[in-house]
Amino acid sequence: MTRYKYGFILSSILALLVSGCGNAKIVIPSYSPPKEYKKLSEIESGGDMREGTYMAMAINPEIAGEASSDKKKIDAILINAIKQGLTETNFITIYPIFDTANVALNMQVISYEYEKSSNNINADMQVAFTITKGITEYISKTYSSKATRYSSNPNLLPSKSKILLDLGKEVSKKFISDITPLKTRQLREFKTMPSELDYIITYAKRGNFESAVEDMEEFSGDKDVNYFYNLAVLYEGLGAKTGEMESFNHAKKSYAKAMRRGGSSDEVIVNAKSRFDNFYRLFQMTQSQKNQNKNLSDELDDMYGQTE
Amino acid sequence: MKISKSVINAVLVSVASLVMSGCSVMQSGAESLAQVPSLENQANRIVVGMGLVRTNTVIANMPISADATWPDALNDELVLEDNKQMISDALDMDPYVATHEYTDLYQKTQLGGFGLVAAPRIGALTYSALNRAVILYGPDKENWPTFFDIETDLSTFHKFTDGNLKQVEASSANVYPSVTDALISLMPTNFQKDLQDAREEMIIGFKEVAALKSEKGMYETQIETNDDASQTEALDEQAIIDLKQKILEIDTSISEKEIVADEKETIYTSLLDEATKVLESDIELDEEQVALAKNILLASSAIKKGALEAGGAFALSTTILATTNIVQDFPKELASLAVARIYIPDDKADLFDKRLSRLGKNALYAIPAIAIGTYYAVKQSLLAGRYESIAEIIVEADKLQKEAERDRLVDEENAKNEAKEAS
What we know:
The complex is a heterodimer. By secondary structure, chain A is an alpha/beta fold. Chain A is built from 9 helices and 9 strands. Chain A has helices at residues 3-18, 37-41, 71-89, 160-179, 199-205, 209-218, 225-242, 245-260, 267-304; strands at residues 25-32, 45-46, 53-54, 56-59, 93-94, 103-116, 120-133, 136-150, 182-189. In chain A, the strands form 3 sheets. Chain A has a 5-stranded mixed beta sheet with strand order 5-4-6-7-8. In chain A, strands 1-9 form a two-stranded antiparallel ribbon. Chain A has a two-stranded antiparallel ribbon with strand order 2-3. By secondary structure, chain B is mainly alpha-helical. Chain B has one domain (5-172, 287-422). Chain B has a two-stranded antiparallel ribbon with strand order 1-2. The N and C termini of chain B lie far apart (88 Å). The interface between A and B is large, with 42 and 45 residues.
């Protein structure tokens, strides 16, 4: 081993020991990107009902495979979990009538096993999800989920329904995260504030981004890289709270100002801006898709009454 | 006795950890002053250090769930205090623990040491290592692995080959086969398969380096102890030259394998870094995931603590071996034990014989164990630190989220009360 390596190891150990002495942080809502967005864009429909390109699909209520006594329960769990996942962001609208749908989601339970002994439960499920447009398959993916439980007290073991629910939710979530943005969270670290603005961090931690932004904007002292970075984080928090694009636009401008004032050489700022940029794009995309899908929902409401 | 530069160098990291790792190692340092300055005591310390490295391997491969209680128990000082009596009882029939109080005084008159201060029956590091056995294997010592014999199979120095692990209680959350599997399950889905593959490659790389280091240590021990060997077992000059040549060849192989292992480690850690960056933008605060992250954090902290304690033990033994004539005086030590036999009560004579037999084996394998143990301890500590920082992302986000939510509710309540008072 080289001396350099010792230095690295020692500094790593020291870094581990002193970690946790960072600046104040807050959690802000975010989206995770759908992994199959490119393929999804191929199933967009548009123009045949109203202007705009919407994304909608019907869920086939008949789930293929697995003829066990639990079939009905499994089918219901999968369909509900998919509906719940899709309606979380409405990035893809659920088309209510399967027979007339242009795009459809078909599910097949490839395998399902459930074993229970006095102290153990072992179960697994494998489900294939296929999105078709007309007769063409666009996305076909298979996911599996396992459940292993043990307790020396058999009474503490969960019921079969709970296990089925966990398995069904997990495979559905894996599929949903591939086709639609999911709501998640990010950590944002504040940079040192001028002492007269220290209280802003308390505002932010308590979710009072409105007052925090207002007071920051009124600040007449030195507006350096840290000021603009912190302002960007606050606007980001405000946007995440209100869902208003205007706040995100302010955040974008403030990040740009921070970068111009030397933020490009600061890892915390560069990382935060990079995450924000990804989120900003996803948020724009999601909002735009939701608005376009709304056209379809309005049309369907007119035709069939209120939809989900 | 000369200890190779590489071994001394390799334990420098452990010296740093000795200073930083807290009371068990510090206590062990103080205890060494009261012990007989013997190869047996250094070998025992090294064996306990290996026990910590091996229990670290057990922890890393222990099934874990969001509701498992063992990670918390490993970090709970009160659990250690509670378990001390059980450990003490379990060691009643241990050959060294049961007999050293009868031989210490005489050995000190022959080998030196502070005659007036008695060494503790069981050392602090031994309690720390065996506390892990109680938690991971259960209170019945029949289920514990063999702690005090150094494994002679070079490829399994870092892990136990026996013992029956306790079944992990996990009634309300999923059980993952190991801490690493659980950690990977918290990572973004599209990274999980690549992380598993890269991790397996890295482990193979570590094993290859460790096996070579161990083999080198064996040849070094053969040369170092040659002066003490009986006439019939002594190596001739040519045999020593051959062994030295082999050591040189192994050194070259070690360098080559280390480069390969380092590359594999870099691939795995780079992937972990990449996945961590994505995780930082994509934190899920599902209750089960948060609880699992907390348990991974606790398990990783326990691994890091064990690695630091083991490093401290190796550093202490290396320092003592390098600065005294303990190895050269080994024949004198054996002679002192032979004489001290008269102080052993009849009902413990068998245990004394077992102690001598164990000493013969452990003394031979102690030096290779330092090298291999330090190698694994450093690797374990660095990786556990990385796992800690990953789990901390989720745990910290959850904590901040809950604090913000609590503050928001307090503010809302205050605002309501103020509005009521105003009206």
